[in-house]
Amino acid sequence: MDARSEEITCLLKAWGSGDEAALGRLTEHVYPELRRLARRSMKNEVRGHTLQTTALVHEVYLRLVDATNIEWQARAQFFAIAAQMMRRILVDAARNRGSRRRGGMPVKISLDESAILSPAPDRSILALDEALTAFSQLAPRQGRVVELRYFGGLTEEEIAAALNISPRTVRRDWDLARAWLLRELTPKTAESSAVPR
Fold first, then answer.
1. Considering its fold, how many domains does the chain have in total?
2. What long-range pairs does 20-27 form, CB within 8 A, spacing at least 24?
3. The domain containing residue 31 runs over which residues?
4. pLDDT at residue 104, rounded to an integer
5. H-helix or E-strand containing 159?
6. The pLDDT value given to residue 180
7. Rounded Cα–Cα distance for residues 90 and 159 (Å)
8. What is the residue-wise DSSP string for 43-105?
């Protein structure tokens, strides 16, 4: 564990034990990382949307600070929960904008480390969320790997620490999940994609 991760872990534990001063020091460390995650998640949002990167960071941060039933153990756990919250906020925002229109272009999703959603980000994030929810029912751990890597931007090592598995298992889980999700999210034929849902 590097010094920064260790310091964040110590601050999380101190804050969890009731040290309010630790929260201020913790904020200095995690806020820039939350901004990086939010920028990454927001880079393909529709122009003119109402949810801005700063608002996403603040919403995640407020939810994390208000979480009272979490026993903080490590930096990876903190960012795993942040990734889950970011996913929920983005999906809720997409739903609230009424982005579930019938018909339209097929949804294309790129499941690489850069978290690219195209060509219709709102529909894409909803399609990915639905597919990931279905996949997580079949393979919960592999679903968490996708969530942590795609929405949270965690590295293989951070995911391994958060889920208490080896980095090699993370790679295998990612490969399996990516193949399943790509199969589910790839339009079967041009004709079937035009059928109203």
1. 1
2. 23/65, 27/61
3. 3-96+104-193
4. 46
5. helix 156-163
6. 93
7. 21
8. TTSPTT-S--HHHHHHHHHHHHHH--S-----HHHHHHHHHHHHHHHHHHHHHHTT---SS-S
